[in-house]
Amino acid sequence: MVNLIIxxxxxxxxxxxxxxxxxxxxxxxxxxxxxxxxMMKEETPLGRKVKGYVEKGLLxxxxxxxxxxxxxxxxxxxxxxxILDGYPRTIEQAEALNGIAKIDAIIHLIVPDWIIIERLxxxxxxxxxxxxxxxxxxxxxxxxxxxKCGGQLYxxxxxxxxxxxxxxxxxxxxxxxxxxxxxxKGVPFVEAKCEKLETPPETIVEEILKGLKxxxxx
Length: 218
Ligand code: AMP
Description:
By secondary structure, the chain is α/β, with parallel strands linked by helices. It folds into 2 domains: 3-111 and 161-214, Rossmann fold, CATH 3.40.50; 112-156, no CATH class. 46% of the residues lie in helices and 16% in strands. The protein has a 5-stranded parallel β-sheet with strand order 2-3-1-4-8, with helices on both faces. It has a 3-stranded antiparallel β-sheet with strand order 6-5-7. The model has no long low-confidence stretch (mean pLDDT 95). It binds adenosine monophosphate. The site of adenosine monophosphate has 17 residues, from α2 and α3.
């Protein structure tokens, strides 16, 4: 059983790699952003509340986010580990997590800014199963239709140039300091660098798995 956090700027590939690592490591993925988008789609009362934050690229208040995290963790079968994608994003959230679960390692994705901008503006997601595509290098076989389930693809409402800028700013200011925080706590890191737009996700996934094996975590 292994508990991991995947860190990286918006568009660094967290969701893409986490979904592929899920089966290889037999873990659950908890992606708070996905959970918020699902609530927004369903137009639940909480969904209406978080929409204003998500669509501006701002962080949803900690009280809501922590509750969502706790509910997701409670659903994980006993003995199974997890990858957190998009949580924690602030020191406060990391402190709250400390009280709930032990983290075995951090996966840190290092991706240059220009790749992030290219990726985010051409990212498309399946409305039905959440699979992630990219019109530049991870294209669906048929235009705007999911290869896996036939669902329709859509563009996230926060993948617009103005909101992307804000999300990167929020990441640098509020989330990046967490790397230092976990380093100081002695949590081991696995770093994966992506320097080309066309690098296939599988290459990065193998690099991550190699790093986890070195730590005896895979
Ligand atoms: P993501 O899919 O991880 O890029 O998240 C999309 C948006 O959901 C973010 O820009 C935030 O508005 C919100 N969000 C996701 N996770 C968190 C979190 N841990 N804390 C606060 N807001 C979050």
